[in-house]
Amino acid sequence: MAAPPVQPVPTAAAAAAAVNGDAFRLGFVGAGNLAESIARGVAASGVLPASAIRTAPHRRPERGEAFASFGACLLQTNAHVVDDSDVIVISVKPQIVKQVLLQLRPRLSEKKLLVSIAAGIKMQDLQDWSGQRRIIRVMPNTPSAVGQAASVMCLGEMATQDDENRVRKLFSAIGKVWTAEEKYFDAVTGLSGSGPAYIFLAIEAMADGGVAAGLPRDLALGLASQTVLGAATMVSQTGKHPGQLKDQVTSPAGTTIAGIQELEKGAFRGTLISAVVAAAKRCRELS
Q1: Potential cystine with 90: which of 76, 116, 250, 257 (Cβ 3.0-4.6 Å)?
Q2: Beta strands per DSSP E along the chain
Q3: Distance (Å, rounded) from C-alpha 52 to C-alpha 216?
């Protein structure tokens, strides 16, 4: 038997949202890890109170428990989520988006904003399957789990400026947000969607290099991960070109240029460029 809906006590954040005139209910059709990261970020940031968030876990009770743990409402079915939400996030796996939207179509209307985070599913397909034109498509990435997502969104033909602002607030709760035309989304997937895996490989390789040079494993991994974090923060916060920052570290005949020379021998930059292009190409093929 499905668990009864959880109804958390309204919080001070709920009252604040009502005062600000931007109180709305946010529903997730699909209760996976990415959906949870978004929901947690939204609640933690105060953009919405947890009591305004709802989902309907089906086959995996632990996913419902994850949402309930921070105060979100659990409803019995996706249909109930749609009925009880103003903004509906489609967060199921891409291969079942069509099936889910066709099932929910009778309950959808232009009074509700549909937001899709399903990778590779085009706006035209979302519109055809849902019968809606008030849609925003968003491509976040896995660092949403730690509040450092890179998200890109594009607007459907009936999405309003208020819709864009609302979705920007939601996804700003888990990182940074850009707006771009949908024609760029395959490239976005190749860069920011797949990019965390490239960086994980780089961190692992740098740590292995530290071990090879004589460092203990824990120290090497800690130094590698913090170095990547620090370098990324410098690019983001200083506004300087990465090449300029690289030059500032690279003394004549020093240690850094010796390391860079080895990276250039191994076509480090060219390989990363090729990885982004290959992932973007694969995304086009899958969609």
Answers
A1: 116
A2: 26-29, 53-55, 73-74, 87-90, 113-116, 135-139, 149-155, 175-179
A3: 47
Write out the two tokens for 165: 């602002």
- Tokens for 47, please give them: 């953009």
Structure tokens at 201: 């490989």
Q: Could you say which DSSP state residue 191 is in? A: I
149 bridge partner residues: 175
What span, in angstroms and rounded, lies between the C-alpha atoms of 279 and 190?
Answer: 4
Q: How many Å apart are CA 165 and CA 149, to the nearest integer?
A: 17
3-state SS class at 95: helix
d(CA 173, CA 147): 7
Predicted local confidence at residue 119, as pLDDT: 87
Q: What is the pLDDT of residues 270-286, one digit of tens each?
A: 999 999 999 999 988 88
pLDDT in tens, 185-230: 999 999 999 999 999 999 999 999 999 999 999 999 999 999 999 9
List the one residue out of 140, 165, 143 whose CA is nearest residue 155.
Answer: 165
Contact between residue 67 and residue 31 where contact means Cβ atoms under 8 Å apart: yes
pLDDT digits (tens, 9 = 90+) for 9-66: 333 334 334 334 568 999 999 999 999 999 999 999 999 999 999 999 877 888 999 9
Return d(Cα 229, Cα 224) in angstroms, integer.
Answer: 9
Place 86 in a pLDDT band, splitting at 50, 70 and 90. very high
Query: Which residue segments constitute the domains of the chain, with CATH numbers given?
Result: 12-186 (3.40.50.720), 193-286 (1.10.3730.10)
277 to 25, 123, 178, 241, 286: CA distances (angstroms): 38, 22, 20, 21, 14
Nearest CA among 80, 78, 152, 146 for reference residue 116: 152
